[in-house]
Design a protein that fits this description.
- The protein is of the alpha+beta class.
- It has one domain: 2-Layer Sandwich (Antithrombin, Chain I, domain 2), CATH 3.30.497.
- It contains nine helices and 18 strands.
- The strands form three sheets. Strands 3, 7, 8, 9, 10, 11, 16, 17 and 18 form a nine-stranded mixed β-sheet that branches.
- Strand 17 and strand 18 form a beta hairpin.
- Helix 1 crosses helix 4 and helix 2 runs antiparallel to helix 3.
- The longest helix is centred in the N-terminal third of the chain and has 19 residues.
- It is elongated, with a radius of gyration of 21 Å.
- The chain starts with a strand and ends in a 6-residue tail after the last strand.
Length: 407
């Protein structure tokens, strides 16, 4: 059975207001890699905030970026400027929808060699009778390929059940209960959701008979027994500055998992604090194909995070305030972002990776040199990992393994 990765995100809108119309004039097309680079910068900024979480960490920066970029299509003025800055959208952000559309099409390309599954879906859930500007609806439908659904948030149990069913369907039942009934109420006007699903086999699968229980040294200073998978081969690899990185491709070679491992068993904190877009880009460019041995643990876990505080700490403050300007969505009630709820699942084993995630945005009424000898990449202590699109560089998933035995 192939492995999968799932992610869900919900953006919940409620009471303040949102202003302005989305530009209807022609927009200059920019290469989707521009958005991909911005997504990576945002991913690392956000990870810098959520890494304080205890234990394992996993999220889909792409899902979060896509849901918030879709939300920003209805933002105006300083609200839009703040969102563009935090999301690292190019220019004034007006071309973001077209660039995201191009990037999504690039990610979903099928060249005949790619045997993995990758699905990306967006949806806009609107309170019955709430007036949404047609130009905003057109943008989210044509550029973000979102479906639009009417619902009654005054009946929170039924409304949330419908949203969660959609997320489950789009993530092959891996992301359940993205939202709870108390995430919405009679003042909720909009919920924007994004779901991403990945299922793929390694280009070179690990042999199950080579997997054995071995010590894994945790950040607490202790150790636990974990199943470590072993294989040798030719991989892109780099060793520098007290750490090493290796790239494990999936079938088709369009997607890969990059693992970052500190040399010291207690070195993850230093690696995390020094991680930046420039450093990651430098590591990826410095990787060279070399013969080596890889040992990584099997792991599987789910994580749910509410990201409002982290996004505000990064500078997206107005969007969550009573002064938010989302008039590009509606000229009726003022709206603000109430919550950004993200849930992700990952399962890594000998055959490959299964991962998924979903993001929901709710809106409611306001108120160094490379050694030449054979490398040994032994992940028997905490490490970082990312699933990325090789061509665009987009980080689809990003996480940390502190203890592979914890789910």
């Amino acid at each position: 059975m192939n492995r999968r990765t799932f992610l869900g995100l919900g953006v919940v809108f409620g009471g303040t207001f949102m202003s302005g119309l989305f530009a209807t004039e022609p927009v200059n097309r920019t290469h989707p890699d521009t958005v991909a680079a911005g997504n990576t910068a945002f991913a690392l900024d956000l990870y810098g905030r959520i890494r304080a979480e205890q234990g394992n960490v996993f999220c889909s920066p792409f899902s979060i970026s896509a849901a918030l970029a879709m939300t920003s299509a209805g933002a105006r003025g300083e609200t839009l400027a703040e969102m563009n800055k935090v999301l690292h959208l190019p220019g004034d952000g007006s071309s973001a929808p077209i660039q995201f559309a191009d990037l999504i099409l690039q990610l979903l390309r099928n060249d005949g060699k790619s045997k993995y599954e990758l699905h990306i879906a967006n949806a806009l859930w609107v309170q019955n009778g709430f007036p949404i500007k047609p130009v905003f609806v057109d943008v989210v439908k044509t550029q973000y390929h979102a479906v639009m659904r009417q619902t009654d948030f005054g009946q929170p149990v039924d409304a949330v059940a419908a949203i969660n069913r959609w997320v489950e369907l789009k993530t092959n039942d891996k992301i359940k209960d993205l939202l709870k009934p108390d995430n919405v109420d009679s003042t909720t006007r909009l919920v924007l959701t994004n779901a991403i699903y990945f299922k793929g086999k390694w280009h070179k699968q690990f042999k199950k008979e080579m997997t054995r229980e071995e010590p894994f040294f945790t950040t607490s200073g202790g150790s636990t027994k974990a199943p470590l998978m072993h294989q040798g081969g030719n991989y892109r690899h780099v060793a520098t500055d007290g750490m090493q990185a290796v790239a494990l491709p999936y079938e088709g070679d369009n997607l890969e998992m990059v693992l970052l491992l500190p040399d010291d068993k207690d070195g993850l904190g230093k690696l995390e604090s020094n991680l930046s877009m420039e450093r990651l880009d430098g590591l990826l460019k410095a990787m060279k194909r070399r013969e080596g041995d890889v040992a990584i643990p099997r792991f599987k876990f789910t994580q749910k995070i509410e990201l409002s505080k982290e996004l505000q700490d990064l500078g997206m403050k107005l969007a969550f305030s009573n002064g938010a300007d989302f008039s590009g969505m509606t000229s009726a009630d003022r709206l603000k972002i109430d919550q950004v709820i993200h849930k992700a699942f990952v399962d890594v084993n000998e055959e490959g990776t299964e991962a998924a995630a979903a993001t929901g945005v709710t809106m409611k009424l306001a108120a160094a040199p490379v050694p030449q000898d054979r490398f040994n990449f032994r992940a028997d202590h905490p490490f970082l990992f990312a699933i990325r699109d090789v061509k665009s560089g987009s980080l689809l998933f990003l996480g940390r393994v502190n203890d592979p035995t914890k789910q």
